[in-house]
Specification:
Helix content: 25-40%
Structural class: alpha/beta
Number of domains: 1
Distance between the termini: 20 Å
CATH topology: Rossmann fold
CATH superfamily: Response regulator
Number of strands: 8
Strand order of the largest sheet: 2-1-3-4-5
Strand content: 25-35%
Largest sheet: 5 strands, parallel
Order of helices and strands: EHEHEHEHEHEEE
Number of helices: 5
Shape: globular
Length: 158
């Protein structure tokens, strides 16, 4: 499992990373590889070429972040995004990009741990593979459904 954390505050990134690793260890899940990004543009550049991230946790305080997150969702509608912000009104942006959760800074890490346990449980079952060609990179999800869940996404029944 790969988790991308995007924030300009190194202390926040470190605390989120530490909490996620503790939760996965306690729940006997695969301990995630945590990737750290200082900007949303850096995250987008990585994702365009790899698409191997299972979960994105990002600050959404900048206007550019919302546009970049919309672009990420256009590339991969199935990617769960958790938002953090020091502004409560930023939660409304979460609706526009279909975020799975929103946390207000400073983050209450007791609450964060409880909520993220549920998020991690939900995504641990996500199965996908990456198909890279010279022309493009595709993230192909496996599922137990016989029809696509989201129009224009590729789903393979298992």
């Amino acid at each position: 499992m790969k988790i991308a954390i995007c924030d300009d505050d190194v202390k926040v990134i470190n605390e989120i990373s530490k909490t996620l690793k503790r939760v996965t260890r306690e729940k006997e899940m695969v301990i995630p590889t945590v990737m750290r990004f200082a900007s949303s543009q850096e995250l987008l550049d990585y994702y365009k070429n790899n698409r191997d991230i299972n979960l994105i946790i990002t600050d959404i305080d900048e206007k550019i972040n919302e546009e970049i997150l919309k672009e990420l969702k256009q590339m991969d509608r199935g990617i769960p995004i958790v938002l953090v912000s020091k502004h409560g009104e930023a939660a409304m942006k979460g609706y526009r990009i279909q975020a799975v959760q929103f946390f207000l800074k400073p983050i209450n890490f007791i609450y964060f741990e409880k909520i993220m346990t549920d998020v991690l449980e939900a995504i641990k079952e996500d199965k996908f593979f990456i198909n890279k060609t010279k022309a493009r990179v595709d993230k192909i999800y496996f599922c137990n459904y016989s029809e696509p869940l989201i129009e224009n996404d590729i789903w393979v029944s298992i």
